[in-house]
Amino acid sequence: MCMFIREMELFRFKDLELGAILKQEVVFPSPRKEVIQSRRNITWGVLDQLLELGRNEGYFHFRSLDRTKAFIIGTLLSVPGLAGLQQTPEMELDEQEQELIIEDLQVYIFGALRCPLPENMH
Q: What is the pTM of this model?
């Protein structure tokens, strides 16, 4: 799960504008819906598998797979940066700031899953 979170955010950090476009395509109706949906289904399918595996092994604790997945997706698609500050493509995040955001997301998501953090989160 740590790697999933990390890779999702690193993808978005590579091109913040592309991340914003993808978020918009997921949230709002679009003529590109089928293309986005096929790629999204693969990614979210991996998330389903990770959540189910973690729950079956007693690490993750949640009531609803669908709601939990929606909460995690919403968190991962949220705008990185400081509270109340709108992130724009012009605002570059240095590598250290990216790592802090990734770590914060891992702590937040694992806390929501009531799962102890792995010793080596990266």
A: 0.78
